[in-house]
Amino acid sequence: MITVHHLNESRSQRILWLLEELAVPYEIQFYWRDVHRMAPAELRGAHPLGKSPVITDDGRAIAESGGIVDYVARHYDGGRERS
Ligand SMILES: N[C@@H](CCC(=O)N[C@@H](CS)C(=O)NCC(=O)O)C(=O)O
C-alpha cells in the first residue's frame, strides 16, 4: 500500500487529492513543519531530499510531485493495481 509522507501545509495535499480521486488506498505518515517552517529531519528517513511530498510503495521511495503523479498513473489505474 502507498504511504504518503505528508508535511502540513505543503503540496503533498495534491497527492492525497489524486489518490482520493482515483480511489487508491493509502496511508499517511504525518510530519510537521518546524518553527522556521522547514520540514523536520525525520522526513529524510523517507527520502534523502527531505522534502514533501514523498511516497513509499512496495519498497520504493518516490519524490517530486510530478514523479509521484507519473508513478501513480503508471501503477494504479482507477484504483486497480497493474502487474
Ligand atoms: N519540486 C518539489 C518541491 C518539494 C518542496 O519544496 N516541498 C516543500 C513543501 S511544498 C517542502 O518540503 N518544504 C520544506 C523544506 O524545504 O524544508 C515537488 O514538486 O515535489
Report on this model:
- The protein has 83 residues and is an alpha+beta fold.
- It has a single domain, classed as Glutaredoxin (3-Layer(aba) Sandwich), CATH 3.40.30.
- 27% of the residues lie in helices and 29% in strands.
- It has two helices and six strands; from the N terminus they run βαβββαββ.
- A four-stranded mixed β-sheet has the order 2-1-3-4, with helices on one face.
- α1 runs parallel beside α2.
- The protein is globular, with a radius of gyration of 12 Å.
- The protein starts with a strand and ends with a strand.
- The mean pLDDT is 93.
- The structure holds glutathione.
- Glutathione binds next to loops.
Provide a quick synopsis of the model.
With 83 residues, the chain is an alpha+beta fold.
Label this structure with key terms.
83 residues; two-stranded antiparallel sheet; 4-stranded mixed beta sheet; binds glutathione; Glutaredoxin; single chain; 2 helices; 6 strands; alpha+beta
Topology, element by element:
Elements (H helix, E strand, L loop, with lengths): L1 E6 L4 H11 L3 E6 L22 E4 L2 E4 L1 H11 E2 L2 E2 L2
Parallel strand pairs: 1-2
Antiparallel strand pairs: 1-3, 3-4, 5-6
Helix pairs in contact: 1-2
Glutathione binds next to loops.
